[in-house]
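anyone seen this seq b4? input:
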Amino acid sequence: MATHQAEFFHPRRLGHVNLWVEDLARSERFYNEQCGLTVEFTEPDLIATFLGTGQTPHDLGMIQTTNGIDRFGRDGILQLPGSIGQQVGLNHLAWELENEADLVAGFKRLQDHAIETDMTVDHQVAHSVYLFDPDGNYNEFYCDTVQNWREVLHGEMDLITSHWDPLSAEPFVEGRYERHPQLRIVDAAPLHPQRVTHAVIQSANVDRLVDFYTRIAGLTVVARDCEVVYFSGSHASYNYNLVIVPAPSAAYGHAAFQIADESALDSAIEKLSDNSVFDVIELPWKRSLFLTDPDGLTSEWYVSRAAPRELRKRGDVALLLAS
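predicted toks r here
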């Protein structure tokens, strides 16, 4: 097991995954009605929906593809250039930091080392710094600015995002994330997820990404198995928050959501229609249901098992699914 001292950021956990989708209403129905994520708030002018379990303001964000048309946030900020988001897939991974002081300190270190950021923004309940990893995956490093976020974001919202200058004021040092979150379920949905725990991405140059996600993102390598690398933040209740799987080219794999127990997973498998079930994986270290959404993107809904993970013993299960 390896450890690493963060040089730039030091995330607590993966806060959410954000996707580009082709038809926002269609994807919202799938993740709400089939997957059991609550619609926390929407941003119609951005063509975006934010769903979650209650752990954070959202576990999963979705934005409709741009079709080459710019979209603007508050005060005229160019939030989504039409040059991005033209294909379905990963928009960004979001990493939750302890407080604003940590976020600003990381931003200053990026400046000191001439590492380029894409933008710094105020999302009303969070301040964020965005930058790309070497494979082009977009990453958001953020801190919560409002603990009772549901008082600010709920239902249909006007444009949320505006510019934020990290150096404009003394940053606060207290953690404003919710310490006792109110979890929510969609009763009628087959699945009742508890939280998003990690994301899986593929890369043709794993070592290059390991350098980014340790040296810059500040994650810790907690395991390596069959050339697959597992990373965690500082939050002790998560085994890992990011998995990088070797592959011929860079690609988004999936987001993984934790389910309460195997009986809950059994119930979900029974209720889901056959055409939505991509695969059910039975391994000594986990049991997983993989679903394919309307855009063909995969998500994992899983229960951990007590046996240690040994990917060489995965049988005919693909490395991407077994990790």
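The radius of gyration is 19 Å. The chain has a mean pLDDT of 95. kinda curious what u guys think
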